[in-house]
Amino acid sequence: MKRTATVIPVVAEPPSPVPASALRDAADAGPGSPGEAEDRSFVTALARGLDLLRAFGPHDDYLGNAELSRRTGIPRPTVSRLTYTLTRLGYLVYVESLEKYRLGQGAMVLGHRYLATSGIREVAQPLMQSLAFATGCTVALATPDRHEMVYLEVCQPRGALVMRLTPGSRLPIATSAIGRAWLAGLPAARRASMLVELERHYQTRWPTIRGKLDRAMRDYGRRGFCVAHAEWDRTVSGAAAPVVLEGGTEVLSINIGGAASRLTPEILEANLGPRVRQLAESLQGRLWRVHG
């Protein structure tokens, strides 16, 4: 069941309507709070706009300004100005009957262009599908987004779905095999910076999580893959390995997983872990040739 990446062409569309409240808020709201980023080259308004786009999860068809404000921590008047601008540019679409927004074509085109130009899915999918068929497990490729991993491609075995996860699904970096493998593949400086971000995110839970991450990094150093048995989800277990591209400037991660009741730690470590490591090495070599 081979799939190839598809590029969605940019089609000129009439701008969607924007709510009257957005126009009022845009007039009333002042500029963003000063000092939000100490780096003078950092454009806070742009970062906040991207935060709004990231706030849409795989199951969020529509979100309003109030929900976007709650999810991002951005003040509602500022959210209103940003959604107005993103709507005018085609990255959001305003649905008058719901008084909410959905992602627009502009946002989708960016994602599809990345996948199409990188060649990642075209190269990875046949290899991933072959391993899924051979093991009866789900195989997935993911990229990071803050403290989560986002699935780019998911291949299922024959028969009933083992894990009902699709492209766009999110897993926590710190407690999933695919996230731990991504951390393991990072250059040391980037990993240290990411650990600081994760500590800020998990707060009081961090000491316990950090201990497990340290153990995962040691395990990776010995065997080249990471595992997580019934951690981020008590019903799911998996093994994963990093895919390092562009001399380390880009790191993805690939995992193999399924029901925790079937995939014991022994199976993960003796069978599936080495197989996903081999898959990552093969994929990494092919992608280097594509980009070389």
From TrEMBL:
GO biological process, one term: negative regulation of DNA-templated transcription
HTH iclR-type domain boundaries: 43-105
Region (Disordered): 19-38
Molecular functions per Gene Ontology: DNA binding; DNA-binding transcription factor activity
Keywords linked to the UniProt accession: DNA-binding, Transcription, Transcription regulation
Superkingdom of origin organism: Bacteria
IclR-ED domain: residues covered: 106-289
Record protein name field: Helix-turn-helix domain-containing protein
Protein's organism: Cupriavidus gilardii
